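Researcher: Re-running this chain for the archive, since the previous output was lost when a drive failed. Same request as before.
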Amino acid sequence: MNRDWHRVRDRIKARWSTVEFDDKAMKQTRGGLKQMVSLIHHKTGEPRAEIRKKVAAAL
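Model: Regenerated structure tokens:
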């Protein structure tokens, strides 16, 4: 996930456009799928497996 971070971040923010993501929190997840899934799960309550699928599609 380190490559094209800005592209990935923008796609994540677009996919969950109703959620406010703090840039600092997003930067802390950089490079880690597990951390990104945890952040989104914490913000949305969505099942982790579903989030993983959506994040993988964004990559």
